[in-house]
Amino acid sequence: MGEKCELLEKCGFFLNFQGNSEVVKQGWIRNFCESKEKSEKCERKKIRKETGKPPTDNMAPTGRLL
Asked: Which residue of 3, 6, 40, 65 pairs with 36 in a disulfide if CB–CB is 3.0 to 4.6 A?
């Protein structure tokens, strides 16, 4: 596997929910965070690039609010 998402260390979602059973069950970290290539599909990353600000911490990589 390649590099992880470059925003991982400052991602509020990852930092707050990495041990959450729903997050693990949905595979969000595996499908978005653990690969720089896959992270390009992350809605959180898209919003940060567009606005220059991180989205709310409870927004999943899919754009769904928890």
From this structure: 3
